[in-house]
Amino acid sequence: MWGKEDYLLNFLILFQRLIAKNVKLTHLGLENVKTLCAVDVAYDREEGYAVAVKQEGDKIEYKITKGKVTFPYIPGFLFMREAPIMIKAIEGYQCDLLLVDGHGLAHPRKSGIATVIGVLLDIPTMGIAKSKLAGDIVEENGIYYVVINGEKVGVKAGKYFYSPGNKTDLQDVIEMSKRGYPEILKIADKLSKQAKKDKNMSSDYKIW
DNA sequence: GCGACAG
DNA sequence: ATCTTGTCGC
């Protein structure tokens, strides 16, 4: 039903080009980030459990959103599967920066899920992925850049890939990569996987 | 045709 | 992502 030759994918490519055209690669400056957020999703068949985690100083809170996720995972089009529920999960949270599990600019059309969410919500986002989707790794002055079409679109640090989503730049992701894999993403991952196990959860607001 | 391919 | 035991390594 969702073949590569499907006209829908051609349409989605047009959508991604529009998103890429509207990306703002401005410098955020991690020192200005007081409220940091992250989102991740876990699955149980067709049931998706998205968790948005918000951190401000020592205060950490999170919100769980459960919902049907039927669109399949297609490399390059992850946003169609996870962006809807992620956006729903982050709803109501005001953050200086949102970390998304996946790529941002380090995408064939510079339109990874972190970029799509950032542009649609007009907020600063950064994509952090556990594996590569596209590009070559080129070392320069100790930094391993992800290069696509001769352009530096992100960096690789350890086993993770960092790339700007929206309203962030290469310097921001380089700084973030030097801090190591964000604890808040580990929390989001852990909570989402925990949520799908707890069959009797209330799918809403909780605080630590 | 062959290899690559976020979660 | 998810299915899954023991096991190699820091």
Automatic annotation (TrEMBL):
Subcellular location: Cytoplasm
GO cellular component, as recorded: cytoplasm
One MF term in the entry's GO annotations: single-stranded RNA binding
Catalytic activity annotation: Endonucleolytic cleavage at apurinic or apyrimidinic sites to products with a 5'-phosphate
Biological process terms in GO annotation: DNA repair
Family matches, as Gene3D superfamilies: archaeoglobus fulgidus dsm 4304 superfamily
Required co-factors: Mg(2+)
Keywords, comma-separated and alphabetical: Cytoplasm, DNA damage, DNA repair, Endonuclease, Hydrolase, Magnesium, Metal-binding, Nuclease
Pfam families from the UniProt entry: Endonuclease_5
Sites marked Interaction with target DNA: 73
Task performed by this protein: DNA repair enzyme involved in the repair of deaminated bases. Selectively cleaves double-stranded DNA at the second phosphodiester bond 3' to a deoxyinosine leaving behind the intact lesion on the nicked DNA.
Entry similarity comment: Belongs to the endonuclease V family.
Listed PANTHER family: ENDONUCLEASE V
Protein's UniProt name: Endonuclease V
